[in-house]
Design brief:
single chain, alpha+beta, 7 helices, 7 strands, 34% helix
Length: 183
C-alpha cells in the first residue's frame, strides 16, 4: 500500500492548491448537485471556489492536505471564527451556556470543510488530517458546519464523537468537538 503524506498549508499555499482541492470537491459532490443532464455542472465547482476564496481570507486560516502516490486524497480546513461574525447569531442559539461562556475568549475555530476521496474512505485519512490540524487549536471551542445532506461529513463527525448541536440556519447543521482533556 502506498504511503500517505500529510502537509499543513499556509493561506498562500492553500490558495496555490485551490484548483486541485476544487477538483476533489467536484468529484465528491457532483452526484449531490447533478444538473438536469445528469452530469456535474460547473456551478458546483465554481460555488466551492467562491466559498474557498472567502474562507482562505479568514483569520488564522489553517489547512491540511493528504496525498497518496502523488494524488490529493483528502483536505481539511477551517479558520478562527469571530464571535460576532456572520455565523454567530444563528449558531449561538444552539450552544449550551457553558460553551457560550468558553467562546467569550474569542477562541472559536470553525472547521469549514472535510473531504476524503472515495477510495480512501474507511482508512484513517480524515482522522490523521484532523489530528494534525487541531494540534494548534487544543484550547479552542471547535465547531463544524455541514449541510444536512452531507452524509459523509456526518459519518466522520460521529466517528470522531462530536456532538450534533442541531440545525441552525437554512441547510446547515452544527457540530461541536468534545472537550479536550486538561493538560
Amino acid at each position: 500500500m502506498p504511503e500517505m503524506f500529510l502537509r499543513r498549508l499556509s493561506r498562500w499555499q492553500g490558495e496555490g492548491q485551490r484548483e486541485a482541492v476544487a477538483d476533489l470537491y467536484a468529484d465528491l459532490y457532483a452526484g449531490l448537485h447533478a444538473d438536469a443532464s445528469g452530469g456535474a455542472g460547473s456551478g458546483v465547482r465554481q460555488a466551492f471556489l467562491r466559498r474557498f476564496e472567502h474562507d482562505v481570507q479568514q483569520t488564522d486560516f489553517d489547512m491540511v492536505v493528504a496525498h497518496v502516490a502523488g494524488n490529493l486524497v483528502g483536505c481539511l480546513y477551517g479558520y478562527r471564527a469571530e464571535r460576532g461574525g456572520e455565523w454567530w447569531e444563528a449558531f449561538r442559539h444552539v450552544l449550551s451556556p457553558a460553551v457560550v461562556e468558553q467562546t467569550a475568549s474569542g477562541r472559536v475555530f470553525l472547521l469549514s470543510e472535510v473531504m476524503v476521496a472515495p477510495l480512501e474512505r474507511g482508512s484513517d485519512v480524515a482522522y490523521r488530517m484532523r489530528a494534525l490540524l487541531l494540534t494548534r487549536h487544543t484550547s479552542d471551542v471547535v465547531v463544524a458546519v455541514i449541510r444536512p445532506d452531507d452524509d459523509q461529513g456526518r459519518e466522520v463527525l460521529q466517528a470522531w464523537d462530536w456532538t450534533k448541536l442541531g440545525e441552525f440556519a437554512p441547510r446547515q447543521e452544527g457540530w461541536l468537538r468534545p472537550p479536550s482533556p486538561m493538560p
